[in-house]
Amino acid sequence: MLESLGSLTAGPWIYAVVGVSIVLDVFVPILPSGVLVITAATAAAAGATNATVPDSFAQDVPELLLLALCAATASLLGDLVAYRLAWRGGARLDKAISRSRRLSAAQERLGNALSKGGGILVVVARFAPAGRSVVSLGAGAAHRRAKEFVPWSALAGVAWALYSVSLGYFGGQWLGAGWISTGISVLALTVAGVLAAYVVRRPRTSSPASNLAVASATSPTA
Question: In the chain, how many domains are there?
Answer without folding.
Answer: 1
